[in-house]
Design a protein that fits this description.
heterodimer, A: 2 domains, 74% helix, 0% strand, B: 232 residues
Chain lengths: 365, 232
């Protein structure tokens, strides 16, 4: 009897102890941090392959915003208004990322040739599992913040950045909700343009191209000097098979910013889609002279494959795929596509056919 | 697999054997040892869950830049949970029964539980981090678990002698607190950057190890099973 009472009392004390530990030290900001480190994990786990085609543009904005945000002066209590930003890049997050990658290794998912889709699916499913638990807390937090405190640009920015993360993890519903809230409270024009852009992304990625077009256009009206906005709208038109408009917008973007490779590349692929192969080749060659970075070729390949699906009758596409592999120095793959092109190239300008033959010959030598 | 058994199970079995035979005047029952060991394995899973959840849902975690957060995690989460799971198998499995008669019984069964915990911990580390982590753990963490168990076990033994429930519980918690403190100090050695961790840990283990050895010697000397001179 005494033994039972002792065990019972110890169990009660232990329960009270853990209750206090969880209550006193509960991490309210965890949800936001999880988003941030998951994004880093995705990039790390993919070996640097990025998941958004437009990331080079969008990421820049986000990072700029984030830097501004982090450098903001502290409030009267000497604290940063949103302290959760700071630990985002802390050692802990790196460690967590490393542990996450280990999980991938353990599951046998860690392969060099792991496709983007496979990886995205795996991470997405893991993320969803994790997020379900935290979603409720976030909802609570969202509700509690309604109409309370000072509505500020910072808050809109927070919604925008969190929505970006939500979109990256395919939680479009949440992203829409956050962005609507951001639009409601925001008073800054520049930020509004970015929120509209993000809404455009959400609609774009869910296949609502008309909706996305509307948002992209609205954003462009607010910031017509922003080359990236033209690129996004252009790509939206491209996927709607409006290649002329895509070409036009990307050329404007190119005029605004000569150093960016994406508008140049989009001009090339628009020409290719329109059947103007020589012009497309000319732009592709210009592209290969630029320093694109390690991963850009993956975007290019991805888009070429998308175009191939959109228009399987375009016989020049294998040549351009082969050319991209050649630039990436993957000779065997390049030759495979050059051969495919050489087998069926009726109606393609002679210059391109000759180039394909030359590349094929050089590779086999 | 063979390496794994040798590395994780070998030292554990050796230490159980040593503690079972340290008491020169009494045989330790095998079936109770086994029960406590299995219960310890079971409670270890609880420790894994609770420590993971604390790390996940609270601001306390091991990878912080702030030493206070690390220290908080080590004391409130790691030390408490790991010491708690060592005393629970003893309380459930043997405490208050026919085989629980003196202070040394408390020490022996708590050490057995500690070795069960350490065994499972080593297995997990072997699978997650490989042999490089298990090897130093065998020589440093395993003795730490045993040393802390000696102190908490001693107080469980004292609680067995106490008459009132209140005093029994007080004794158990005193033991738990002392064990927690030792466990925390050992873990903290590896988180601080002022002293060289391995040398400091060895010195710390030597001091606590010798004192717990002396404590055991004293308890065995005063054991009711020891033949008294006047009886000879």
């Amino acid at each position: 009897m005494k033994k039972t009472i002792i065990i019972f009392i110890i169990l009660i004390v232990t329960c009270i102890y853990y209750f206090f530990i969880f209550t006193l030290f509960y991490d309210n900001e965890r949800w936001a941090r999880e988003f941030m480190y998951m994004r880093d994990m995705m990039e790390k786990a993919s070996g640097g392959i990025r998941f958004d085609k437009e990331e080079s543009i969008w990421e820049k904005y986000t990072r700029e915003l984030l830097t501004d945000f982090r450098n903001k002066p502290k409030n009267e209590h000497g604290q940063n208004n949103q302290p959760w930003w700071k630990p985002v890049f802390s050692e802990r997050e790196k460690m967590k990322a490393a542990r996450f990658i280990d999980r991938f290794k353990g599951k046998g998912l860690w392969r060099k040739e792991l496709s983007k889709q496979e990886l995205a699916d795996s991470i997405s499913s893991f993320f969803n599992q994790m997020k379900k638990q935290e979603q409720k807390n976030f909802e609570k937090w969202l509700e509690s913040s309604n109409g309370e405190g000072q509505i500020s640009e910072d808050e809109a920015l927070f919604y925008l950045i969190t929505a970006t993360e939500a979109r990256r993890y395919h939680d479009f519903q949440l992203a829409r909700k956050l962005l609507s809230r951001a639009l409601e409270i925001n008073k800054d024009e520049d930020l509004k343009a970015q929120i509209l852009q993000e809404l455009g992304y959400v609609e774009h990625e869910t296949g609502n191209w008309k909706e996305a077009e509307k948002y992209f256009q609205d954003a462009l009206k607010l910031k017509p000097e922003q080359s990236g906005f033209y690129v996004n709208l252009g790509w939206n038109y491209f996927l709607q098979r409006n290649f002329q408009e895509s070409l036009k917008l990307n050329k404007i973007a190119l005029d605004l910013d000569q150093e960016k490779w994406i508008p140049l590349y989009n001009v090339a692929i628009s020409y290719l889609a329109m059947g103007e192969y020589l012009k497309a080749y000319e732009y592709y060659r210009n592209l290969s002279n630029m320093d694109l970075g390690e991963n850009s070729y993956y975007y290019i390949l991805e888009d070429l494959f998308i175009l191939n699906k959109m228009d399987s009758r375009n016989k020049a596409i294998p040549f351009f795929i082969g050319y991209t592999y050649l630039c990436k120095k993957r000779f065997q793959k390049a030759d495979e596509f050059f051969q495919k092109f050489l087998e069926n190239n009726s109606g393609i300008p002679n210059k391109i056919v000759e180039e394909a033959k030359r590349y094929h010959k050089n590779i086999n030598q | 697999m063979f390496d794994l058994i040798i590395l994780s199970g070998g030292p554990v079995l050796l230490l159980i054997w040593y503690f079972a035979h340290s008491h020169l005047y009494k045989l330790m029952p095998f079936h109770k040892t086994l029960i406590v060991f299995i219960l310890a394995l079971f409670f270890s899973f609880f420790a894994i869950i609770i420590e993971t959840q604390i790390s996940k849902y609270t601001i306390l975690h091991l990878y912080s830049d702030q030493l206070s957060i690390v220290a908080g995690f080590l004391f409130f989460s790691v030390s408490f949970t790991e010491e708690w799971i060592k005393i629970m198998p003893v309380l459930i499995g043997v405490y208050g029964g026919a085989y629980f008669e003196e202070e040394y019984d408390g020490i022996y069964y708590t050490v057995t539980a500690a070795l069960g915990v350490a065994f499972l911990e080593n297995l997990i580390y072997f699978y997650s981090d490989g042999i490089r982590t298990v090897l130093p753990r065998t020589f440093l963490s395993l003795p730490t678990h045993v040393i802390t168990a000696v102190y908490s076990g001693y107080f469980i033994g004292l609680a067995g002698i106490e008459k009132t429930i209140f005093m029994k519980i007080i004794k158990i918690f005193i033991g738990l607190f002392i064990a927690m403190t030792i466990h925390f100090l050992y873990n903290f050695i590896f988180s601080q950057e002022i002293l060289p961790p391995y040398y400091t840990a060895i010195v710390f283990l030597l001091i606590t190890g010798v004192s717990s050895y002396l404590l055991i010697k004293k308890i065995i000397k005063n054991s009711p099973y020891r033949p008294r001179k006047e009886l000879l």
